Amino acid sequence: MRHALITAGAKGLGRKVTEKLLEKGYSVTVNYRSDENAVQSLKDKYAHLSQRLQFVKGDVTKKEDLHRLVDEAVNRFGRIDFLINNAGPYIFERKKLADYDEAEWYEMIEGNLSAVFHLFKKTIPIMRKQRFGRIITYGFQGAESAPGWLHRSAFSAAKVGLVSLTKTIAVEEAEYGITANMICPGNILGDMKEATIAQARQKKDDMTPIGRSGTGEDIARVVAFLCEENSDMITGTVIEVTGGLDVIHRHR
């Protein structure tokens, strides 16, 4: 049985990915930071699949927590086939780089870039032995072209670095049957992160060209597709799931 490790997989976009992977028949180790209610909600919903699901509490900005996460996944399930780097700290306050303090800068870099490095270091040797692996990272719309993003300097700097890292890993590890791709969600806000596509179609979104908001299900469908055995031709790719919305320039 294929096993997935997902960071921040108990709520938001990550929850829909966790649910999709469980529904596909995989086992899943879910990392979460603090929301015990979200974890309990998943446990209750998937009580009948408890043998395929485990939760590991930890902060993605702490290397020790990430190492323990990988160890617990392997100890329980014996392998890691899919690494879904869903967690990504974000500062919602809109402010310029000069107004950031050092702690905020390092939280963005550690949580969005260094965390992925630490997970890569621990999981790639496992995937090499398996001669199979699917690595998914997350970016933002336009990240591939390294745009400036007003008031999002630290987050965008980390994610643009992650674009290059993802593409490099795709080339370096291809011989081992490992792929690495980045997904860039569009403007998926609030309840829509855990919504279905059917729910989104019931409410018109005039900002998004296709006429509806993006949802967690949209992201989960792409993740599940990239994890398939026959998706190995897709690697080193940045896939935007935005409904045609230009997220960055809309805020200028």
Give a quick summary of the entry.
With 252 residues, the protein is α/β, with parallel strands linked by helices. It has a single domain, classed as NAD(P)-binding Rossmann-like Domain (Rossmann fold, 3-Layer(aba) Sandwich), CATH 3.40.50.720.
What does this structure look like?
The chain has helices at residues 12-23, 36-45, 63-77, 102-130, 153-172, 197-201, 216-227, 247-250, and strands at 3-6, 27-32, 53-57, 82-84, 133-138, 178-185, 238-241. By secondary structure, the chain is an alpha/beta fold. The protein has a single domain, classed as Rossmann fold. A 7-stranded parallel β-sheet has the order 3-2-1-4-5-6-7, sandwiched between helices. 42% of the residues are buried.
Key features of this structure:
252 residues, alpha/beta, Rossmann fold, 8 helices
